[in-house]
Amino acid sequence: MIAGHWEVVVVGGRIAGASTAWALAPYAERILVLDASRPTAFWPQQSTWDRAGNLAWAELGLLETVLACGAPRTYGDTQRIGDDVVERVYPREDEHSYRMSLPREVLDPALLAAAQSRGNVTVCRPARVRAITIDGGRVRGATVRHDAIDSRLTCDLLVLADGRLSRNAQRVGASAYRVVESPWFALLAYYENLPLPTDRSYFSLQDRSVLISTPCGDMRWCVALDLHQSLIDETGRHPGRAYERMVRDDPHLRPAVAAGRRSTPIGGAGRLRMLRRPMSGPGWCLVGDAGYHLDPVTAQGTRAALVTARILRDRVADAGRAAGADLTGLTGERDAALDADWAYTERIVRG
Ligand SMILES: Cc1cc2nc3c(=O)[nH]c(=O)nc-3n(C[C@H](O)[C@H](O)[C@H](O)COP(=O)(O)OP(=O)(O)OC[C@H]3O[C@@H](n4cnc5c(N)ncnc54)[C@H](O)[C@@H]3O)c2cc1C
Questions:
Q1: Based on the domain organization, do 205 and 344 belong to the same domain?
Q2: 305 Cα nearest atom in ligand 1
Q3: Does one domain contain both 223 and 307?
Q4: Full residue range of the structural domain in which residue 58 is found
Q5: pLDDT for 325-347, tens place per residue?
Q6: 262 and 196 in a common domain
Q7: What is the CATH number of the domain that holds 248?
Q8: Does 296 sit in the ligand 1 pocket, CB within 6 Å?
Q9: 73 touches 99 (CB < 8 A)
Q10: CA-to-CA distance for 102 and 106, rounded, in angstroms?
Q11: 83-112: per-residue pLDDT in tens?
């Protein structure tokens, strides 16, 4: 039964939503997480992060959960720029100085399971929020479709973690106030049993493309390609075909993928827009891509999602409870915390 009153309702149960439910659990009696997708869905998205991401997981108390997913840590990479090859080792600052990557179908369920282990977090999926109740200028609840039935529920705080295309952000009036159109198309697929090192990644930077392979599990790799839209337009090739050709033509990856096997379809997204929406308003808050979407080309989306969850958690912790917490001023706090990531990503996106 999801109808009735919940102190916190989180819409979206992936990186941002599951982490937020975990983080807010000590400050609410009952939290409901709703996600429109089926648990078995394949998400052509990656989650790779560096030392700053490790610190963000640790700040939320989720680093152990993430490490238990079993992805190898990478301490350096091989970079091919044109025909030159350079071996890099990441600077060793502390025990968090490594990069890590996890397939979403491994990471997202682990985060949801951690949230549910709190005991006061209920997950309902597939369940889609179809309308939001606003009364007296304040969000009071939502209408949710689950099992072909619409239920109305009320809440003290509605957290929108429903991704960059969030329709609910529009429903609460959170319009984007900063937008950057990206010319990059992001593609990826997962592979198994590649004869590649498991403690380092590979980057190939060529004319208007970046090909990256990253170990992300037991003999599993993610092979991602960022492709400039102008290259797609010039060749007239479907981005998926361009991906296959570039992996096949790469001197480092060609023999590896011939020996291993691709275990997922090639998927991805193009014509993306970096965007910032306000983070909070009366009775609502936006976390993750819903409020702050960075182009994947710099792999900063995971950290941004965690930082927004942490900012909300800290504000709620100050008040002692989610209900009645003062959420004013969160937009400025978030933008200041993520400004360097935005500037770096925008510089790359604008070329
Ligand atoms: C190809 C690609 C590669 C990427 N690579 C990286 C990378 O290497 N490193 C990195 O840090 N980031 C990467 N990113 C970005 C990263 O995937 C996102 O930043 C991250 O997924 C954001 O998580 P989120 O929880 O905010 O949103 P999402 O992962 O988009 O989750 C939103 C959830 O909300 C649910 N939902 C939507 N509408 C409703 C509704 N009405 N009711 C209920 N539920 C709803 C959806 O079903 C979904 O499960 C990549 C993205 C892409 C596309």
A1: no
A2: 26
A3: no
A4: 4-75+100-180+272-349
A5: 999 999 999 999 999 999 999 99
A6: yes
A7: 3.30.9.100
A8: yes
A9: yes
A10: 7
A11: 899 999 999 999 999 999 999 999 999 999
Residue ID of nearest Cα to ligand 1 atom 10: 299
Write the DSSP symbol of residue 310. H
Which of 222, 238, 269 marks a domain boundary?
A: 269
Q: What is the DSSP letter of 26?
A: G
Is residue 228 lining ligand 1, measured as CB closer than 6 Å? no
Give the count of domains, the chain. 2
18 lines ligand 1 (CB under 6 A): no
Please indicate whether residue 186, judged by its CB atom, sits closer than 6 Å to ligand 1. yes
Quick check: is 80 in a domain? no
342 found inside a domain: yes
Question: Which helix (DSSP H) or strand (DSSP E) does residue 241 occupy?
Answer: helix 239-249
Structural domain contains residue 311: yes
Q: 42 and 124 in one domain?
A: yes
Q: How far is the CA of 235 from the centre of ligand 1 (A)?
A: 29
CB atoms within 10 A of CB 262: 16
> What span, in angstroms and rounded, lies between the C-alpha atoms of 40 and 78?
33
pLDDT digits (tens, 9 = 90+) for 226-272: 999 999 999 888 999 999 999 999 999 999 999 999 999 999 999 89
Residues 42 and 143 occupy one common structural domain: yes
Is 58 among the domain residues? yes
Q: In terms of DSSP bridges, do strands 84-89 and 76-81 run parallel, antiparallel, or are they unpaired? A: antiparallel
The residue among 274, 269, 284, 255 whose CA lies nearest residue 335 is 274
The finding on whether 19 has its CB within 6 A of some atom of ligand 1 is no
What pLDDT is attached to residue 237?
84
Helix intervals (H) in 97-157: 104-116
243 shares a domain with 141: no
pTM of the model: 0.97
φ/ψ of 205, rounded to 5, equals -100, 110
Cis link prior to 126 (omega < 30° from 0)? yes
Residue 1 has pLDDT above 80, yes or no: no
